[in-house]
Write a structure and sequence with these properties.
883 residues, 26% helix, 7-stranded mixed sheet, alpha/beta, 21 helices, single chain, globular
């Protein structure tokens, strides 16, 4: 969201730098308050150690090393993923592409909250599997992608970079190779101000990391530094490795739940480049000055002289806190932590006029940690809550800010205010619970109540990297450098809290910000917390968003327009569906009246050609014109799973209708066993067949004989225990004359012996990632390619992302391979499409990525799938007699 903070009297250049430093200092995940939190924060308060790990995707990171460095050793850590994983599959639900990227972004954030790191991204969009770095760095603009990696290095300023991958073919995936190459290139150039000089005017400085290491996952004997990640940590009650496995288990969309085994473990890295001059590897930070006093070396001599006594006093106070912390009473360390924060505040004041970025960054991070450590030890809890989780422009919303002083301190001059986006207004600020002198007594709570009014032009909660249309496989970031590389936009509203406490050197000021949230109760699950989202007063969506229209079809079909009111004052207006040339829509419009928030109505429009309609894509656009003249023409989905922070995905209210010749067998009835989620049933329905989703009861009961063909969805043999249990019945259905069509599945499919005749899949499985790769039709006169649609080379034009994946490498002679294809430089493979006669029926394995093509309306993919559905066992047996 383009939320501009209200700040007065600050120059633009200083504001950019302040934004960058504020995010750098405060965004690292903090472990809450209380005993364990205090101990973990104490580990982070001494020393200036920053480590950036660089990989390609969500799940590439070594979470055990991140956890060891952050939680165990107190270093600042971050993981830079080139992509958000948009090109993968989704085991949770139907979201693909941008929606899947939102899920996997949230999973990385959840993982970092556990292992203690920060999360960054580049503009690269995951376009799917790639076999080489050359391909990846051709599809992604190489220099622009390198600039993104350099930007994150200059922003985070790591002394150490950990490259997950080597940057050569041994990494496998081309994205992996590209990340290894770019990690090393960025290490070389990030400190050169002549490279990407435009960044230097946006609030960062050139920064040369001192050391670069490569992970040694597959080559542990090459490690020069080894981390003991399986050591029991008394604060965590387990090892850092166990913590990291819980972190990894947040990658639920990838089916990556992991065990948390006890006992010794190790993980290593290999030193590749070293600017420290040490000449040998004595540890990750050997040869690196990681002291706060060392960071002060960048200050002018007279300023450094004023600052150093405070830094020495800070370290003494911190040492006292660490000695005092016995693991039983965090209140005992409140005094030393007050002194530590006081000295950091004074050091900040003494160096306020010195433009030394490294010192400001290090000092800002330590001040943030010291504030939170003091709050944690003192039992002070800060909270900001909205009474509505979805708000709209022009709406008023009640917001409450709370300080719970659960410890022994008296909090003097306690205040709370709201930090709002430009144009937003807050009134009220009534406080309850304070003493007459403005202090907050121990074991008491103070609340401030506000009414926040959103302006009529308030920006929606559109994720910053999705505001502009993507150019190919590269996002377009807005001109707000403080957002670049972040997982998402920060909360638009924050509570700004301040108070002071008595210390050895007088009053110690404490000030910090906390984002707002909505807190509710699910009767079945208990209390939940979620971010507040800003959405339009009315949302408009068309279903289906994409439709295949057989060219010969001369009857009407239904497009449904759903209008939902999000305004507390109600909404009414007129809904219409605008048709492209050559189409008619009835009725012309509907009147809609939605008097209260949350009400939704759907309106059915009948569309049909009004003449000869050209082959190709046609766009229908829906809108609601409200009574006040406001036009609403977009909808949104809230992507909300319990393990991630929810987000809104906005889409225009339009439907794409793709017209081309496609037919299915007359009266065809299809049963569909859904796998991990795809658009197969809707695609089949739009081609003109009758399709029924088969649930666990139907599958376990073997109720297949009402259907001409049973389709098994992508990766269905992973989540569908009912399918595994009923597989013998499915094969009996085929033997009795039915057709079984199995889409791509992974290794457990051939290993489980689910097919009627032996199949095998190589490791890694064959796949063709070039969507333009030449496809040879091996038996063009086979029934599959002749009826009801004549399939030719033209039907393999316009495919997206890939040809297919998880091809078979070996198969029984009962199967007939029908297609041959290959990526450039690879040997030809014929395991993409196999058909076998089974008794009186047919069994087919189709590893072509139909699920990708459906979403993009690729005509040839629909036509070929229509032929697979229509394949007649009698015709096949005549073509391929069984001896």
């Amino acid at each position: 969201m383009a939320f501009g903070r209200i700040r007065l009297g600050v120059s633009a250049s200083v504001l950019v730098l302040a934004n960058l430093l504020a995010v750098s200092a405060s965004a690292q995940s903090l472990p809450g308050t209380g005993l364990v939190a205090t101990g973990l924060l104490l580990r982070q308060m001494d020393g200036v150690k920053r480590v950036l790990m660089i990989g390609a995707h969500p799940d590439d990171e070594d979470t055990s090393i991140l956890a060891e460095l952050s939680r165990g050793q107190g270093a600042q850590t971050a993981y830079l993923a080139l992509t958000r994983g948009e090109g993968g599959q989704n085991l949770l639900g139907p979201e693909l592409w941008d929606g899947l990227g939102i899920i996997r972004t949230g999973e990385l954030e959840a993982a970092r909250r556990l292992d203690g790191g920060r999360q960054f991204f580049t503009r690269a969009f995951d376009f799917g599997f790639s076999k080489s770095a050359d391909e990846a760095l051709t599809i992604w603009p190489r220099e622009a992608l390198l600039s993104d990696v350099v930007w994150v290095i200059r922003r985070f300023r790591p002394q150490v970079i950990l490259a997950v991958f080597r940057g050569d073919p041994s990494d496998g995936h081309g994205h992996h190779q590209a990340s290894g190459i770019l990690a090393r290139e960025a290490f070389d150039v990030a400190g050169d101000p002549s490279r990407f000089p435009d960044q230097l005017s946006r609030g960062v400085e050139a920064w040369a990391p001192t050391k670069l290491y490569g992970l040694t996952r597959r080559r542990p004997d090459q490690a020069t530094t080894v981390f003991e990640i399986g050591t029991y940590d008394p604060l965590l009650g387990r090892s850092e490795f166990q913590l990291s496995m819980e972190s990894r288990s947040f990658h639920r969309s990838q089916d990556m739940g992991a065990p948390q085994p006890m006992g010794p473990r190790a993980s290593g890295v290999r030193l590749e480049r070293d600017r420290s001059g040490e000449g040998a590897d004595g540890g990750l930070f050997a040869g690196v000055d990681t002291t706060l006093a060392g960071a002060a070396g960048s200050l002018p001599a007279d300023v450094a002289a004023d600052v150093r006594p405070h830094l020495e006093a800070y370290r003494a106070a911190l040492a006292e806190a660490q000695r005092t912390f016995g693991g039983a009473d965090p209140f005992a360390v409140v005094g030393p932590l007050r002194d530590a924060l006081d000295h950091l505040n004074q050091a900040e004041g003494a160096s306020a006029d010195a433009a030394a970025t490294e010192f400001r960054l290090a000092l800002g991070q330590k001040r943030a940690l010291a504030r939170w450590a003091l709050l944690s030890a003192a039992g002070v809890v800060l909270d900001v809550r909205s009474d509505d989780d979805v708000v709209t422009p022009g709406q008023s919303v009640s917001v409450t800010a709370t300080i719970w002083n659960g410890g022994p301190l008296v909090l003097a001059n306690a205040t709370a205010a709201l930090d709002l986006p430009s144009g937003w207004r807050a009134t009220g600020s009534r406080s309850q619970g304070l003493r007459p002198d403005g202090s907050l007594a121990p074991q008491s709570m103070a609340t401030w109540s506000f009414t926040v009014l959103l302006p009529e032009d308030a920006s929606f909660s559109q994720l910053y990297y999705l505001r502009q249309p993507r150019e190919g496989s590269f996002y377009d970031w807005p001109d707000e450098p403080h957002l670049w590389g972040l997982p998402r936009d920060p909360a638009p509203v924050e509570g700004s809290f301040g108070f002071s406490v008595d210390g050895a050197y007088g009053q110690v000021a404490v000030a910090t910000n906390v984002p707002w949230n909505y807190v509710g109760v699910n009767p079945a699950r208990g209390e939940f917390r979620r971010p507040v989202l800003v959405v339009p007063q009315a949302s408009v969506a068309v279903t289906p968003e994409g439709m295949v229209w057989p060219q010969a079809l001369d009857e009407s079909r239904t497009l449904t327009v759903a209008v939902r009111n999000e305004s507390s004052g109600g909404n009414r207006g007129r809904v219409r569906l605008a048709a492209p040339a050559g189409w008619s829509v009835t009725p012309e419009a509907y009147e809609v009246d939605l008097p209260s928030e949350g009400l939704e109505r759907s309106f059915a429009f009948q569309v049909r050609p009004s003449g000869d309609v050209a082959v190709g894509e046609h766009s229908f656009r829906a809108e609601m014109v409200a009574a006040d003249g406001t036009v609403y023409a977009q909808g949104f989905d809230i992507i909300d799973y319990e393990h991630i922070e929810r987000a809104a995905l906005f889409t225009p209210a339009e439907a794409r209708v793709n017209v081309f010749p496609v037919r299915v067998a007359e009266g065809l009835k299809v049963g569909y066993i859904m796998g991990t989620g795809d658009d197969g049933p809707e695609a089949i329905r739009q081609m003109g067949a009758d399709v029924t989703l088969l649930g666990p009861d139907e599958v376990r009961g073997g109720r297949f004989h009402d259907y001409d063909v049973v389709v098994v969805g992508v990766r269905a043999y992973e989540p569908r225990e009912d399918l595994k249990a009923a597989n013998a019945q499915l094969l009996d259905y085929a033997r009795a004359g039915g057709t079984v069509l199995v889409q791509y599945n992974q290794y457990d499919f051939p290993q489980g012996g689910y097919a009627p005749f032996p199949l095998d899949m190589g490791r890694p499985a064959d796949r063709v990632t070039d969507e333009t790769a030449e496809v040879e039709i091996l038996q063009p006169d086979a029934p599959l390619f002749t009826s009801p649609n004549k399939i030719t080379q033209d039907d393999f034009e316009g495919w997206v992302q890939e040809r297919g994946l998880y091809f078979m490498s070996q198969w029984d002679d009962a199967y007939t391979p029908l297609l041959e294809m290959r990526d450039n430089g690879d040997a030809p493979t014929r395991g993409a499409l196999l058909v076998a006669a089974v008794g009186d029926g047919i069994y087919a394995y189709a590893a072509l990525s139909f699920f990708r093509q459906w979403a993009s309306g690729v005509p040839g993919a629909y036509r070929l799938f229509a032929n697979l559905l229509s394949l007649n066992a009698k015709d096949w047996r005549q073509y391929r007699p069984v001896s």
